[in-house]
Amino acid sequence: MDPNPTSHPILSYVLTRLPPSLSFKRPQKPSTEFDIEQPPPQPEDPSAADLHGLDLVERMPGLKDPAVLEAMSKAVAQVAQARSVLQTLGPQPDHEAIDKARARISEIEADLSPQMEEIVITSPRAGDSDGQQSRAEQAQKEKERREAAEKELLGLRALIQLDETYEAYEALLKDSEHKLDQIYRSAMEQAEPSLKGGFEAEAEQEEEEEINEEVIELLEKGKMLDRVDLSNRGLKRLPEAFGKLSGLVYLNLSGNQLEMLPDAIGALDSLEELCLSNNILTSLPDSIGLMSNLKILNVSGNKLKSLPDSICHCRSLVELDASYNELTYLPTNIGFELVNLQKLRVHLNKLRSLPTSVGEMTSLRFLDAHFNELRGLPSSIGKLQNLESLNVSSNFSDMQELPITFGDLINLRELDLSNNQIHSLPDTFGRLENLEKLNLDQNPLSEPPADIIEQGVGAVKEYMSKRWLQILIEEEEREKRMAEEAAMQQGPQKMGWLTRSVSSVSKMAGNVAEYLSPRANKPKQDSYMDQQF
């Protein structure tokens, strides 16, 4: 909850020196709750904080001036107050909980109206007295259901509001750091030379050393440029002035030593392709969300622990490569916004789950999430009916099952499930008619059995199709028995209706049987199990 001394050095320093009335009292016992998608919080090292403060004062000796510190303390009073409030409210919810809460709210709101209609339809019709009683019962049922729904919605919305409060707090920290920097610089303009120290001189020297001459030449050309390749130049930083190259359509900064990007990069609103791979970026600026024309973004091979929520505003994105990072989660709403995305690469990260909203990426054709810590896939994955290639291999002991909606991926052609702990394929797997390549190696599968798997993807599809057909038949028979029992209880007159009814399940079973029949006389297909993709 405290600002990070690395990203907010001045703010962190000032908060530790606030007067008692504004200071933040830490809880006596450390909280055991933390984001399940984040590593456990590490205990603070007071000596490390002190060393950081000393280093900052050496570079900014003006912080020792009581007048400067007093002005800064007043400027961060709002931060201290917000920090105390958040401590009272509790820890920030993890992203998985927020994702589930949003999905549950949508589900409740979607189900509420059909439930009310069901009450009206099923309420008995009778004479005046019976009708009055039935209306009263109907009103009571409606009231109870609405109260139950509202009670659950209240808790879910409170959870989301708490998360939004924390996000607002993060924005406040960033704004406060900028404000403190302005206060310091303004004070130093009027201060004695002894207080200015070497801060400004050191900053100017670093800027001169780190800005490549080639970058300076590019800045002089300004809007005349539309394509820039600065890959493998050893760049350590980009100046804010880089945002003035508003005509850029293509920018390649891969293979450098960039630790951060200037906020001004968001001004490149004409940019369509941005390559930042193989740097040492730990975060992306929120301003990246201003790139409304960005189609291809490659941030692979960095040290990103998360993607900014603002990336969801890059609605023109067609390809996103965030592989080879340290991502522990994806933005909750990423799927709701990036509806044009066709290729998503997030392999070799530390993802424990994919957000439910990923099912809204209806244009997605390629998804690679191998070598993560995925504990499963959201049921919404079945909405990706344009998906052609899916790789969720090497999630090892974390990946143990697939959702029943997996069979809705009707256009899937390539699937890699190797090196997981999947015990059985979902019963709907036989519906993947277009599947051509399948890798099930290194899974303790019992369904389908090993001898079927050895025969290749065709045999697996046929086996699972027959299994699905058998399930449909059994379900039909069960429903028929239940209908007969209900009809017998209500009288012989209901039997005529039962006889005339046509089961939709029978029709579905017939379709599956028709799908299987052409395969009966086909020779066994070659194994695809050794094919890698």
UniProtKB/TrEMBL annotation:
Residue spans of biased composition, Basic and acidic residues class: 138-147
SMART domains: LRR_BAC (SM00364), LRR_TYP (SM00369)
Annotated stretches, region: Disordered: 21-52, 123-147, 514-533
SUPFAM superfamilies: L domain-like
Keyword Coiled coil included in the entry's annotation: yes
Family annotation (Pfam families): LRR_1, LRR_8
Keywords: Coiled coil, Leucine-rich repeat, Repeat
PROSITE patterns per UniProt: LRR
An example Gene Ontology biological process: microgametogenesis
Similarity comment text for this entry: Belongs to the SHOC2 family.
Protein name in UniProt: Plant intracellular Ras-group-related LRR protein 3-like protein
Organism name: Carex littledalei
